[in-house]
Amino acid sequence: MTIQVDLSALTKSKWYEYAVRFLFGGAITVVAGLLAKRYGPVFGGLFLAFPAIFPASVTLVEKHEREKKQKAGISKTIRGRQAAALDARGAAIGSIGLACFALVVWKLLPIWSGPATLLAALSIWLASSILIWRLRKHHWLKSG
Amino acid sequence: MQFIFRVVVGGLVVSLFATLGDVLKPKSFAGLFGAAPSIALATLGLTIVADGKLNAAQEARSMIAGALAFLLYATVTIRLIMRYGLHAGPAAFSAVAAWLVCAVGAWLLVLR
Q1: Is-contact A108 A117, C-beta < 8 A?
Q2: Which of A66, A104, A112, B63 would be a feasible disulfide site paired with A121, CB 3.0-4.6 Å?
């Protein structure tokens, strides 16, 4: 399956949907910082992997898919929920990449510079996520 | 001032990854960006500047447990949608409880 970029998807989201994501992302970043200050970095660090984007984005995936079907004259459909479940399956794969990101930062940050470590960790997150996403067809994630 | 800075940086990074997830196809690939390290990039960058690299490295160690809790969270969300017929919103928001139990449990049992 080829990866595609569909810029027309940007027009499907309303301005307030972007605003909600911005404010939610900002709020979680503040909360993660406050928790780290109050309870220390060991507890605060957990919240660096808090599902911040996911609930809002998966809700939009279902809504947009349902609207697409309604425009095509199909009023009752499970396609919205199926699309949401596929999105969640992708996020499950991405979470393994997220653990790889954290591992790289934990091990490299004490010896590398901050920007170099974050760049390396981001590359590892992307590479490991794409690799597992590609492998899923052949192995235990085949049901996707 | 740092509060506003965190809101702006966190909001921008989260929005950037969310927008990438919007424009990419297929859906299962776009979903990877639902677990992007957006909060981590914003927070770790600020922690490195404000509190030093060792503090940030400690946060990253705990983040591994948070990421594994995310894996459980996404799995629970899929089950709530496909097996129990919940809509995506209620499923994703209620599954946050699974993330909290798993992450805080890991902190209590392993990290603390």
Answers
A1: yes
A2: A104
Please check whether residue A124 is in contact with residue A104, taking contact to mean a CB–CB distance below 8 angstroms: yes
- Residues of chain B with Cβ-Cβ distance to A106 below 8 Å are 57, 60-61, 63-64
pLDDT higher for A75 or A106? A106
Query: Which of A18, A54, A62 to probe by mutation at the B interface, max B CB count within 10 Å?
Result: A54
Domain contains A127 = yes
Q: What is the pTM of this model?
A: 0.90
Give the tens place of pLDDT for each residue, B48-91.
Answer: 998 899 999 999 999 999 999 999 999 999 999 999 999 999 99
Q: How far apart are CA B80 and CA B88, in angstroms?
A: 8
Among A26, A33, A82, A34, CA closest to A52: A26
Over residues A127-139, the mean pLDDT reads: 85
Contact B24 A44 (CB under 8 A): no
**Domains in chain A: how many in total?**
1
